[in-house]
Every structure is written in C-alpha cells, then in structure tokens.
User: What shape does this take?
Amino acid sequence: MKRTFSFVIVALLALGACSSGDGSGPLIVYSGRSEELVQPLIDNFEESSGIDVEVRYAGSTDLAATLLQEGDATDADVFFAQDPASLGSVTDLLMPLQGSVVDRVDPKFVDREGRWVGTSGRVRTFVYNTETQIALPETIDDVTDARWMGVVGVAPTNGSFLAFVSAMILERGEEATLDWLKALANNEPIDYPKNSPIVAAVDAGEIEGGLVNHYYLLRLRAEGEGSSAENWFIPAGDVGSLVMPAGAGILANSDKSDDALEFIEFLLSDEAQEYFANETFEFPMIEGVEPAKGLPPLGEINAPNIDLSELADVLDDATRLVAEAGLV
Amino acid sequence: MTVGPTISSAPTTPTKTRSSSRGWWTAAGLILVPALIPPISLVWQVITKGAGSTIPIARLAQLFANTVALSISVTLTALAIGVTTAWLTNRTNIPGRRGWLILSAMPLVVPSYVAALTLIGATGSTGLFATWLGINIPTPYGFVGAWAALSVFLAPMAHLITSPALRLIDPATEEAAVGLGASRLKTFATVTLPQLRPALVSAGLMVGLYTVSDFGAVSLLRYDTFTRAIFTLYEGQIDRRPAAFLSVVLMVVAVAILFLERRTRSRAGYQLGSVKRRRSLINLSRRVKFASLGFLSLYSILAILIPTAVLVFWLLRGINAGVEIGSFWDETVRTVSIALVAAALAALASLPLAMVTTWRRNRLSPAVETSVWAVYALPHITVGVAVISFALAWTRPLYQTIGLLVLVYVAMFMAQSVSTVQDSLRRSSPSLEEASTGLGKSPFETLRRVTLPITAPGLIAGAALVSLSVMKELPATLLLRPNGFETLAIRIWSSTGEGFYTSASVASLVLLAVSIVPLLALTYRDLSD
Assistant: This one.
C-alpha cells in the first residue's frame, strides 16, 4: 500500500518537474492552422529572427474557446487562426495592431479595430467534376436547384461551411439563410465530415460538385490526384465566392508583444506570402505576390461585400440554423 | 468488474481483514475522488451556467436511440467475433493456433478514426478496391459503416478478455457434457458460455461503453450519436455550454446502461479448484477446421490487411507524386513514453479499485464500479473541456502540463485495468491473503508476497490495454497537452484535416507499429499460459 502511494507520488513529482514551464520562455503561438501547413514557415521565422516559437496546434474554434476560458491568464502571445470568425470571437483579448502590419493589407481583410489582420486568403468555391453535364451554378441559390439534386457534397459540421453560413446570415438575415439551408437540405446533398473527402469524391465522379474552399483541390493534386475536378468561382458576387482570410492577432496580455509583432510582420513578408501562394495554395494578402498557377488573381473573383469583423457574432447562430434545417 | 463476489465459498472473515479493508478502501477513495473531477466539474458547469441554447427533445430522443442501437449491436457483434476467435485460438487444435491468437488481437491497435478513414479509403470508386482490384463497393456511410468498423476493431477486446477465462474453464465439465451425448455446439452454449459470464460482461461493458464514447468512426462515417453531436457542437461553436449539457445527458445514459446491466445479470462465476488440470485441445473435424480457418482469414483480411493496404496505397501514391515524407521520431517518442507512464499509473490505481469491488466488497462497491465505468464512457473531448475549466480555476500550475494529461488518461482508461485486475482477483480467493496475515505477515509483506503475484497478470494486461488506448487517444490530448507536445494521433488528425494523406499514412503506420509492443505483452500471457 505505502509503496503504491510513494510510487504514485514520485511519478507525479517527476512528471510535474519535467513539464513545468517558466515565464520567460519562447513566443507562444496558438495556431488553428495545421502543422503540415505552417510549421515549415515557422521554422524559417525562428531561423531568420532568432526568436524561439512554441506552437499549440488545434482547431481554430477550439483555440478561440480555450482562449476565452483562459482569459487574462493565457500564456499565448499570438493567435493564428484559420478564419475571421474565430479571431473575431476573441477580439476583446487582442491588442490593436500597428500600422506597419495593418497598412500592408486590404482593409477588407483587417478587423475594423485593427485587432487582427488577414495573412492569406481562402475562397469558397464550387468544385465540380470536369465531365459533368449539369450547368454550373451562376449564384449560390442555383446550388439548391433541382438539377443538383443528390449530387452535391457539403461538410455541414466543418468550420469553413459554418463561416460561409455566418456570412450568409450577415448578407441576407437569419430567415433567408434558414430558407436557403432548408432548400439545400431538400436537395439531398451528400454530407461529409471535411472538405478534402468532398474534393476526392468529385474527382472520382461519385458526386458532381461540392461546396468547399478553393485550395483543397490544389492540395489533392499535390498528392497526385485531382485531374478530373476543377474549381468554379460562383460569379454572382454572393457568399458563394466568399473570401475568408486566415489571420493573426496579438494577445493584449502578451509580455512579448514586440516578438509577436515581428512574427506577424514576417507572415506578411514577401517570403511568407510566396509560401502561402505556392505551398498552401492560398491567395496572398499583399501587393506584388502572385497566387499559385491555375488560380485567378484575387481581384478577379467577384466576392461579396461582407464585414468580416461581424462574422463571429453570428457563428453560433449559424451552427443552430444548420441543425434546424436538418443538415446534421 | 461488476460481477459481484463470485467466490461464494469465501466470505471474508471480518476480524482478520478489517484493517486491510480499511487500507484498500482509503486508497480507492483517494484515487476515485480526483477521477470524478471531470463529471462533477461538468455537471457543475451545466448547473451554474445553463445549457446555452436548448436542444429539442425530438433530437435528444433521436440521438439516444441511435447511440443505444449502435452500442448494443456493436457489443453483440464484437462479442460474437471475439469469443469465436478466442475459443478457436485457445481451445482447439486449429493449425497455426498461436499465430491466429496474435492476429485476432492485432486489430485493437487500429484507432477508430484510422479504421473509418481506411474503410472510406478502401471503398468507393477511387478506393483501393476499385483501383487495385476493379471492384467498386459503395462506401457504407451511416449505421452500417459505423457498426462494421467499430465491431471489427473492438472484437479483439472481447477476444483478449475472454481468452484467459476460456483457458481456465475446467475441461472436465465439457467432457462430461460431450460424454453424455451433447453436441459440441450445445456443450459450448450450455456449459462453456455460462462459465464465461464474468468475462463476457467485462468485455461487453468495455466495448459497449467505448462505442458510446467513440467519435472517430461515427464522425467520419456520419452516424449521428451523442458523441458526434457533442463534437460538432464543440467544433462549430464558441459557446461550450450546449455541448456540456449534451455530455451530461450522455453520462446519464451511460449510468442507466450500467444500472440495467446490474439488474439483469446473474451471479455466475468461475468455478475454482481444478484449474491446474492439464487441458487438452479440442479436435476439430475437417469441415469445421476449414470453416474456422476461413473465418479467421477473412477477419484478418478485413481488420489488418485492408487497413494496412490502404495506408500503404496512400503512401505509395504520395511518393509517386513526389511528396516529401517527414519522420515522426519526436511524436513517436512522446506517444510511447506518455503511454507507458499512464499505463503504469493506471495499473497501480486499479489495484485498490479492483480490490474493493471484489475481495473487499461492501455496499459502496457498486457505486465505485459505476463511477469508474461512467468516466470511461464520457466522450474524451468532454473530459478535456471539463478538466480545462477545473484546472484553470483550481490547479493553474498543472494546466497544460504532461502531469495533468497523464492523470486524465488514468481517469479515462483505468476502467480497463480495473476490469483485468478484478478478473485476476476473482480467479483466486481472499483466503490466501488471510492465511498470510494469520501467519503473522505484515500487510505490506502480504501485498508483496500474495496480492501482487496473484494480480500480476491482470496488472500487466490492464497496463497494456491502457497504453494502447492512450496511444490512440486524440480529443483530450488535443485540449490538454503542453504546447508543442504533438503525438502521433495528433499528427494523423492534423494531416487528414487538410488532405495530407501521405503524412497521415506514415504517422498511422508508425502508430500501428509501436502499438504492436503492448499488444504482444497482452498476447504473451495467452501464448505462454
């Protein structure tokens, strides 16, 4: 008995000792962007700046909720998120950014109080099989047309779909959004847990089209497939071609705000922007860097006019409406 | 586990065991109280902060029905497969018996999300079957897919739990039945199965409640259970209250299942005594032998060959496309070492808990068992969120430390080791301990010389089961780990999310490879016994 206890206590002490951190450590980044996508870039930053970076990878919404739970007690210095909704839900914890970063980016992709800045653009798109006989949707409402009955893939529980629904709430109001979601549900879409299997299914010809972010197709091509699918940017200027920047902000309580600012400046440097363009296939946020081959310039995409700063306010409503419409 | 004091011949003699009972109960209390922090913190959150937006009753009813239907069907199927493989590989002279014994346990190393992922990767028109064999099987989404994936990959739990019990059965009773003219099948059903009851109940709970808490298979294969709904809420919403509320409902369901199980079971147990008798392997007829070999081969193909082939398929496809393959060395070291520490602690913690629910039973024992299993049945994401709020409020220095993560693993998975240690205890009798005390040995000496040797097989098996579970664990690890503490499971999650299938396949193959070690520890017992 006693021995059992002393074992447990010694083991716990050992664990505690090897895991306790101290205040003067590295720059802590909470990243909702996955390790595969951004770690190489962070390695480059560490090398060029001499600043040590410690990254916590998890889902963007997850990290936003964790930051809210941690509040002022958080150790995080930077929040690097996949979407404006996650960033927007923690703006109270972020500090206003300096002009050196904010001015580099189109104000459309910056928080209205300058608390976060877009670092790369992701565009909602309609991915389709190149052999499809069905006329491509001119508006997002066309996707709920009977001609697309039972052949469209959606990921209704995925963050990017929920952000898209949030944007629709801002554009059309709750009621009209619920109508659209119900119309989509009536059209018997095929639901997937994530974007990438939708693109794979479209490429395989299992379904004719799908609502996804644009870069999943380019990603699939990098894995050696994807030749039978193509992205279609819905041209009507509605949320079908929503541009959702991934972005970053600095925690107001950070004791390393200079390092944190240097990190965000780095994310907006030519080097990082070219990395986003060519390695993660996203749209660069600064002038002078071109998107990956096969993608139109961001300016040519007829994106809707949405105040991204408001996206966070309706994110939870979006989740509720998606459930109400019977999509999950 | 929940099968009462099975050794009816050995009621504890109060005078000699009172002091050691008190010791065991104190230890059990000290372990159980912190382990109950997640559920208590969760209920507290719901009481103080409310449920957020309300969830319609109709949806709750649907989730309840789906969850129970999946749990029951997976349990029955996994038990059927697991008992069959266990019987064939432990009691018969099937050719290659020992090899099949390991192969039948092996699918346990496949995490449910990898199982689901590879099922999706094998089927469909771009899947492995279509590409390599030209057979296009539509992907079985929904109930069928979730049921098939979970049953196939949880059957080894039943196999592993029932194997030792099967070897323990006195062949004399079976031989008597056969001698009296009963068929092999009838003997199995009327003589063998009833003696397996404690092991079957253990395995059933382990599989059934795992199914309740699983998210990987149900989310990827799109079957709407409580846990999937809870996940969706946590992932899609900043407001964590509705998910917490749903988790409390789920916990009530789990406790109800435990309660029902307690009400319906009978008090069958092992027949002690002639366990040392050399048992003989049953001779299978030619026809049965072929059928059995067919069954074992089919199972191994489904549960081992196909998932591995899909992973290799992705890997080769990626290499062809020129994808760079990273090493996962750091992740592997972290995964293995944290699993080892957690497994050792879980085994230690389970000793007092198993003791107070078998040899040192009293009226509190059912509550102890229910608590242990209730924590096991909670979705791991829920445990993670509950522990975050608790740690931030009360134990800030432990927040995001390896120590806390290990403790959470122990709380979540110790039901598995409690169950295997209980099994060891049930096969022996407290009278041995009493004899030792009676001979004037100190409690400490008794523990070392009597209790530990008796429970050693259960402790080892429990530690191995827990380490397998820890290696595969994702949601709680994601929430509670220190910054930068990436495990193999986390890398599989992050790479599949963004469509990096090559990376995902490498990380999965590494995870499968390192999981073989605890698996061998589990089957070693069966092989050498």
About this structure: Residues 2-19 of chain A form the longest helix (18 residues).
